[in-house]
Amino acid sequence: MDVAVVTVGDELLAGDTANTNATWLCTELTDRGVSVRRVITLPDEIGDIARVVNEYRAEYDAVVITGGLGPTHDDLTMAAVAAAFGQELEHNQAAEDWLVEEGGYSADVLDPGTTAIPAGADPLHNEVGVAPGCVIGDVYVLPGVPAEMKAMFADVADQFSGPERFVVQVPVDEPESHLVERFADLRDRFDVSVGSYPGDHVRVKLSGTDREQVEAAEAWLRERVDLLEE
Fold first, then answer.
1. Could you give the CA distance from residue 167 to residue 205 in angstroms, rounded to a whole number?
2. What distance in Å separates the CA atoms of residue 183 and residue 217, rounded to the nearest whole number?
3. What gap in Å lies between CA 230 and CA 227, rounded to an integer?
4. Rounded Cα–Cα distance for residues 48 and 62 (Å)
C-alpha cells in the first residue's frame, strides 16, 4: 500500500509550528507495513491543496491530509478536498448529531462551517476537539491539532496495512563515505533496503519483509565494518 501524507498550514511553512504530524503519521503508517511515498506541506490555499490531492490520489492508494479544519477564515482544507472531487461542501447531520449527543455541544451555537464536509464524504468524529474529519474515496482528512489528529487516525488505522517488515540497526564507527562499496555489495547479496544516517556515528538501517534475509544481511555487515562500541 503506497500512501502520500499532506500537511496543510501557513504556520508550518513559516516555521512557526514544528511539523510533528508528518513524522508521527509516517511512523504509524510505516509500522503498519505501508510505504509512505510522498510527504508535502502546503499553504492554506484551496487551489494548491486541490491540485495536490488530485495528483496524489491518482498516483497512490491513499492520501492522508492533516490541518486546516474548522470554521475560521484560513481553514480551507475541506473546501479544497471538495473541489478536488468536484463536490460542494454541505452540512453533515451525522457530524452535528455526534457533536450534540457525544460532545455535549448545543446545536444552536455550532458554527455551520464546523459540520460542513464534501458531499458524499463520511464524517470522522473528533473525540478531542470540535471539527470533524472525513473520508471521501481514498482521501482521509484529519485535524491539524496533534491530539485530535492522533485520536481520529486511531479510528481509521485498520484501513492501512501491508506486509510485516523487519528492521535492524547497526551502529558503525566509520565515515559514511568509506562504506559505499560494502553497501553496494550488501544490496547485491540480500533482498533488503539499506538506509545510512550519519551523525556522531553512522546508523545503518536494514529492513525487509523476509526476516531471514534481514538477519543474514545484518550478520554479513557486522563482520565487515568497525562497529561502534556500545
1. 7
2. 10
3. 9
4. 18
CB 169, CB 222: distance < 8 Å: no
Query: Is there a contact between 120 and 135 (Cβ–Cβ < 8 Å)?
Result: no
* 48-101 confidence digits (pLDDT tens): 999 999 999 999 999 999 999 987 888 899 999 999 999 999 999 998 888 888
Q: Which residues contact 149 (CB under 8 A, 6 or more apart)?
A: 21, 24, 25, 66, 142, 143
CB 208 within 8 A of CB 191: yes
What SS3 state is found at 15? coil
In the three-class reduction of DSSP (H, G, I as helix; E, B as strand; rest coil), residue 23 is classed as helix
The cell numbers describing 205, all together, are 538501517
Segment (H or E) for 212: helix 211-222
Q: For residue 216, what pLDDT is reported?
A: 97
Instruction: State what percent of residues in the chain have pLDDT above 90.
Output: 83
Dist CA 180 CA 186 (whole Å): 10
pTM of the full structure: 0.88
Which residues are CB-neighbours of 112 under 8 A, at least 6 positions away?
A: 71, 91
Give the closest residue to 49 by CA, choosing from 20, 34, 69, 26: 69
